[in-house]
Amino acid sequence: MYRLLLPLLLVFFCFGCEETEVKQAPAQLVVEGWIDSGGFPIVKLTTTVPISKQLQSTDSLDRFLLRWAKVTVSDGTREVVLTGMPHRDYFPPYIYTTSDMRGEVGKTYTLRVDFQNFHAHAITTIPKPVSLTNIKAEELSQFPGCYKLRIEFMDNPATTDYYKVFVRKNGDSKDFHSTSLGTYNDRLLPTQASILVNNSRQNVANPHATFFKRNEFVTIKFCHVDSVSYEFWRSMDEYQGQGRNPLFNSRQNIRSNIHGGLGYWCGYGVSYSGYIFQ
Questions:
Q1: 97 shares a domain with 179
Q2: Residue 132 and residue 68: Cα distance in Å, rounded?
Q3: Are 159 and 272 members of one domain?
Q4: Which residues pair with 148 in a beta bridge?
Q5: Nearest to residue 34, comparing CAs of 221, 276, 246, 249?
Q6: What Pfam families does its record include (predicted)?
Q7: Does residue 16 have a pLDDT over 50?
């Protein structure tokens, strides 16, 4: 999934910081977890990173991973214990998962996490997947060879629905990255919906960061989500869009459905599509 580690871990509680001292808040549990329709649950656990005047390398973040937690998922009928394991195809490279439970449409899943003094739980549901009906690229005249993507699908006008879009480049890890401003409420969409898909924003200093490039192959993960998952990803979009702007800074906390921690536990009704930019 999108690399939420740094934006979620850098929780600022600075009340009158002085030059000689940076006051620290107690560490908090950070959960990144999801279960796809037809897929196994995936959970990543970390703690918040304290503010430091010293430069911290990416390698130093390893000590904030939680490797020995008890993690369980229940579908209301049975409960399974997830196994922790190193996995290079994810970031951070340690996950909890199981092959003993797959996500099913319409079911509700409860996540529980216990690690020393940390105790957290969350609930999510998996809506019915919605398939894409068309995918097309739009080349940007001001940046030849750079594209944005447009996807189309049929929205049910009789219900209120929420959607989240992720992408993964061919050759990347198994993590899908959240697309920039890729969270939608169908109240603003027609029945024959068409939405613009930006690339995931991995480098804010690069003006081409949200564009796709010629000859890239991407996999689109189009997710039908519940309202709680929508609220988390919408607040994350707002943070990414405003959090780095000194004039219009986002003062809202990122929403979370994790009781006893930060982060998210989301159920996704997923459909996958591949596309080559030519």
A1: no
A2: 40
A3: yes
A4: 138
A5: 221
A6: DUF4249 (PF14054)
A7: no
